[in-house]
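We store sequence with structure; for instance:
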Amino acid sequence: MGAYEQAIALWRGYGIQSAADLDRCLDSFRILFAYHSGRIENAEITYHDTRDIFENGKVHQFTGNPRTLFEQQNQKQ
């Protein structure tokens, strides 16, 4: 089985029937995408900071440039 067929089988295995199901499957993708995108531009951001922004809307014990957090918040929106 080729890579394409494996990808199709994986997504079919999720049994997505609604927009909510798709949202659930892509939830961590959004965080990972925002983290890696932000990391390219700014080495101060961490995965945990990005996850806190997406899940809680705030970050604990961040000592870097506040602009970094605003950029990640914009990714969320």
